[in-house]
Design brief:
Helix content is about 35%, strand content about 20%. The protein has a nine-stranded mixed beta sheet with strand order 6-5-1-9-10-11-12-13-14, sandwiched between helices. Strands 3-8-7-2-4 form a five-stranded mixed beta sheet. Helix 8 crosses helix 9, helix 10 packs antiparallel against helix 11 and helix 11 packs across helix 12.
C-alpha cells in the first residue's frame, strides 16, 4: 500500500458532481401546488419543462452551484485547497460557471463540451418556510464520463468527495466507482453524500453496496438516512450504518448532527440562526466545514462544529455560496467556544 507521505498532496478535497448554474426565486406554496410540483426535494426536468417554470418566476439571483461544487467553494472560503471535476458546455453559462469557480479559488480543469446539450441549470424555489425545491436540467452534466475522472488530481487530494446526484447519470455509478478506486489505490479517503431522498428511492440496495465497498465518510441528513434503510427510527438507522463506513455525519436541521465512528456516536448542537432565509446548500456547507476540519487534523466533534458554523452562514441568506470569509467566522466562533482556532 502506498503511504500518503510518499505522494505530493496539492489538494485537501476534490469534489466530483454536477456543474450547475442555480436560479433562485421566492414563491408561495400555492405556486408549487398549482403546478403539481413536489416540495423539498430535487426533481429532474427536460429543457422544455425547465423553461416553463423559469418563465413564471422572478429570479432573486443567478449563481454557480451544484452540490459538490458548493462544498469545495465552502472549503476554499475556509482556507482549504480544493479542486472540482464536473461537465459544462462551452456556452455562456458554462463560461460563467468556470469563471466563478476559478475566482473562488478552486482548480477546475475538466474539458467542456463543444457540442451537445447546454450547461446544466437548477431552478431553486424557496417557500416562506425556507424549504427549497429544486427543478434541475442536467444538460451537459450527463456527458461527464469515466475519462473525465483525472487520476492525477485524485492522487493529489487527501479526500475525494462524490455527490449522490451523479447517480442520475446513466453511467454515474461507474464514474463514482472509478473515482473511489483511484483514491483508494493511493490510500486516500473517499467521502460520499446521499444528496437527496430522490436520489435514494429505488436505489437503496445499489447504494448500500456501493457505500460499503467504496466509502469511508458518509454525509446525509435525517430524512436521507431513514430513506436509505427504509426505517423511521433515527437511532436505529445510526446503528445500521456503523458496519458500512468508518465515519457517518448525519445532520438534523435545528437538532444539530450526529457523528458515528465505530462504537462511538457524538451529538453536536446546531448553531443558532436568528433568521433562516434559505436552506439551499446547508448540507453542502456542513460537509465543507466537516471535511476542512478533517484535513486539518481536528477531532470529529470539532469537525461537526465547523460544519455547523458554515451551514449557519449559508442559511442566513439566499444562495449556496458563502457571502463572507468562513475562515474568519469559524476562527472567531471556535475561540469563543474555547477551542483551538
Amino acid at each position: 500500500m502506498i503511504k500518503q507521505t510518499e505522494i505530493a498532496t496539492y489538494y485537501d478535497v476534490v469534489g466530483i458532481g454536477n456543474a450547475i448554474v442555480d436560479v433562485l426565486a421566492k414563491v408561495g406554496d400555492r405556486f408549487l401546488t398549482e403546478r403539481n410540483l413536489p416540495k423539498g426535494c430535487m426533481t429532474l426536468l427536460n429543457a422544455q419543462d425547465a423553461g416553463k417554470i423559469y418563465a413564471d418566476i422572478v429570479p432573486e439571483c443567478q449563481v454557480s452551484g451544484g452540490s459538490a461544487a458548493n462544498t469545495v467553494a465552502g472549503l476554499a472560503s475556509l482556507g482549504g485547497a480544493p479542486a472540482f471535476i464536473g461537465k459544462v458546455h462551452d456556452d455562456l453559462l458554462g463560461q460563467e460557471f468556470t469563471k466563478d469557480i476559478g475566482s473562488a479559488g478552486i482548480d477546475f480543469f475538466t474539458a467542456p463540451l463543444k457540442e451537445g446539450p447546454m450547461t446544466g441549470r437548477s431552478i431553486v424555489l424557496v417557500t416562506p418556510d425556507a424549504q427549497r425545491s429544486m427543478f434541475t436540467y442536467l444538460g451537459a452534466n450527463t456527458y461527464l464520463s469515466e475519462e473525465d475522472i483525472d487520476e492525477n488530481i485524485i492522487k493529489a487530494s487527501r479526500i475525494t468527495y462524490i455527490e449522490g446526484y451523479i447517480l442520475d447519470y446513466d453511467n454515474g455509478i461507474n464514474i463514482a466507482k472509478k473515482a473511489a478506486e483511484i483514491a483508494h489505490k493511493y490510500n486516500r479517503q473517499v467521502a460520499y453524500t446521499l444528496s437527496d431522498i430522490c436520489c435514494i428511492k429505488d436505489k437503496e440496495d445499489i447504494l448500500l453496496e456501493f457505500i460499503k465497498e467504496n466509502v469511508d465518510i458518509l454525509f446525509a441528513n435525517e430524512a436521507e438516512i431513514k430513506a436509505l434503510f427504509k426505517g423511521e427510527d433515527f437511532y436505529n438507522c445510526l446503528d445500521l450504518i456503523k458496519p458500512h463506513v468508518e465515519i457517518a455525519a448525519i445532520t438534523r436541521s435545528s437538532k444539530g448532527s450526529a457523528i458515528v465512528n465505530g462504537r462511538t456516536t457524538t451529538f453536536v448542537e446546531a448553531e443558532v440562526v436568528d433568521n433562516v432565509v434559505d436552506t439551499t446548500g446547508a448540507g453542502d456547507l456542513y460537509a465543507a466545514g466537516f471535511l476542512y476540519g478533517m484535513t486539518q487534523g481536528r477531532s470529529l466533534g470539532t469537525c461537526a462544529i465547523i460544519g455547523s458554523i458554515a451551514a449557519a452562514e449559508i442559511i442566513s441568506h439566499y444562495g449556496a455560496r458563502p457571502e463572507i470569509s468562513l475562515r474568519g467566522m469559524v476562527r472567531n466562533k471556535l475561540l469563543s467556544y474555547g477551542k483551538r482556532a
